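Morning, I've got a small favour to ask if you have a moment. It would help a lot if you went through both lines with me. Thanks so much in advance, here it is.

***
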Amino acid sequence: MIRVRRQRGSVAPFMVLALGGALLATAYAIDTSRMTNSAAQIKRATDMAALAVGHERLASGEKPLEDFKKLAYGYVANNLGLDSTLAAQIDEEKLTLSQQEEDDGRIRYKVAVTFQADADLLGVEPRDLLIHSTVEVQPSALEVALTLPNSGSENERNLDVLRRLSLHFAENLVKDRDDAWLALVPFSQAVNVSPDFTNPGSRAPAGPGVDHMQRLNSWAMPSALRPIELTSLFRSGYAGLHDRRIPDRRANLLCMYRGLNRGENYNWDAAPGGQFRIYYRHDLPENGSPGANPIRWIGPNPMFGQATGVDDTRWMVADKGCPSAPLLPLTNDLDKIEERLDQMSTRFNTNYAIAMGWSAMALAPAFRGSAGWNLPDDLPRDFKDDGGDSYKAIVMLVNTTGERWFDSDAYNSYVGRAIDGETGTDGENLGLRTQRLARLCDSFRERKLRFFMIAIGEDEIENNDLGAEDTTIDGASQFRRIAGPGLARCAVKSGDITYLQGFDFAAAEGRIRSRLDEILEDIRQQGSYVRLVE
């Protein structure tokens, strides 16, 4: 019995030790688990904060680091909100944000949070742990052409809306950035590429200026300055279409063309030197622009493309299908952008394909230097597949209300020749117009040139054409039916071509503004990247 009592006495200390060890292990496990969970939760929060900083850098451009730090802290605090104990000990002083720029343009942002790891159950002193997340940001330079109608449908009220929308878009594109540029492409039946502007109302300053003449002479084919169908005009004392008395020269209207046949796509990515023919308007004096007086001569009809035929009184007028506001090449100068927007005026009909072609030329590297748009040597920059670092996009606005025809007039044909392919039935010709837009879109996609369109329009509009009383025009539906399939080839995403209900731009201003904001966000995000690296 004595031996048994001794055995019981020896087990008790062992049990105490075992129980103490179990409690210690449990305490260690609980403290370790809590520290691990806290660290994991903070890591998720710093990941979200770092990504938010990266995306804000792309969306808004360069900002003071302190602004990005406030954003990062907000994301960390919001992601720790359910853990009040943890959230309470992490204030702005416990968060740091650092920035590192690489030689290749990449930027790294590191969000770090210090928190106190407590081990209350173990009875040891708290210690600080550092949790961090790093993102890599690759900003892309942005080159955008904003393409704006200056047709007969754009009265002063609608032009004011276009000015407000465009300036809003321009400010958001270029503010706080030195690597974003905007080109403005006003269009009617053609696009004016004169370096100079003449107010069509005051006719001042009268053209042509030195820059206008230099571009005319350097971009035109030699034969284009004295086209054969105007031989009778030149025999009457005019030197050629470069003569200062030609109405378009006086009004600083320089509308030129090349590559009008299907598949040529206006040769938009080819250099301009010696490549263009010149638009002019042979029409009655009452159909001209007010920018210059018409000129008169006796000769055959130049529309036949010949120097022979029945002589009659002929008139050349300033071309109101050529916008008074010229194309503004890429710039980040908001004063220049606002000035060009103020120069826009109501003109004549519309030609979307020609406007799209010139918008692409505003972004084409082939127009670099003094032989092109006369911009600094690196603008427009190379295409991405040629090693360039710019993301290029066209954003086009159109109003389809009352639309009866487009891309089907003489501006699409060489003088004296039919529009390429449009010699069959109306149905066949509609298909060819779709083809023309589709092939142009295909050429954009090949060079990774993004295209966005916002089209507004309404159907059942009263037809005011002579002899068409008591009929209506379904312009919006017709545009979608004829142009829609071809334009769809431009779209990278289904929403790239947006159709909005509305009579005109004034009726849809708020919705257009919202869509422009979405497009700009898309351009920024697609042109760059943000990735979590640690």
In short: The longest strand covers residues 124-138. Residues 413 and 490 are 23 Å apart (CA to CA). The chain has a mean pLDDT of 88.
